[in-house]
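Reopening this ticket.

The earlier resolution said the output was attached, but the attachment link was broken on my side. Pasting everything inline this time so it's all in one place.
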Amino acid sequence: MSHTAHIPSHRKPRRNAPKTALRAGVAGGVLSTIAVAGAAGPAQAEPVTQTIEMPTITAGLSTAVAASAQATQQVAQDLQTQAQEDAAATTAAKTAKKAKAEAVRKAEAKKKAEAAAKAKAEAAAQRASRSAVRTTLSATSGSTAVASTASSSSSSATGSAASVIAFVKAQVGDAYVSGGTGPNSWDCSGLVQAAFRSVGVDLPRVSQAQSTAGTQVSLSNLQPGDILYWGGAGSAYHVGVYVGGGEFVGAQNSSTGVVQRPLSYDPPSGAVRVL
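Inline output:
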């Protein structure tokens, strides 16, 4: 007997061979699968490479988009700033125009107020002066003397005197304007000068000179066409024309204009005869 005959494994039947072959086949299949996977590896590497490159593309695009957004925002800000500047300029122009119009309105109102105040002051001065003259006349001769004088000098005018009277009566109702010489507005001396010029007689322009332009006559001997004056001879502040019937015509003031009134309305200081 062999010295190894007692080891059973050395004597096992060959029916175990198929298992060994099966194991070998399984191992081979596994190796084949690995080999196939290894062979397939290169085909799948391309998507991996593309995936790695994507972040670079996305980063560049994001930068471009961000730059575009920033530029758009800057343009919007510029447009908004321009719009605000335009609106401010428009508002400033409107404000300046309104302020100018208001300044012009105030200047015109001030000018009118000053003119009205001046006219009022002149009228007040005239009334005061006439009042003083009336007081003096009343103290010396009385108003009855003036009335009787008017009655005694009511004879009808003829010739040049009639023309002078017709001229001044035709202007009754015209406006009084300081410095006015017609044809629709007058001051007292301007009316008297124009009336006598209509009959070819040239008189001085102002009341003071007109009060000494002819022969002095008393108020008790008045004739139609005589020049009446208020104040002193050579310093008169007002003149008119005696039209007969105890009445006179004169450009009184801005409130009354040219009027025809009785001598008692505003008794004169004296008279001169030119015709």
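Reporter confirms the inline version is readable. Helices lie at 17-140, 143-152, 159-170, 188-197, 207-210. The chain is about 60% helix and 15% strand.
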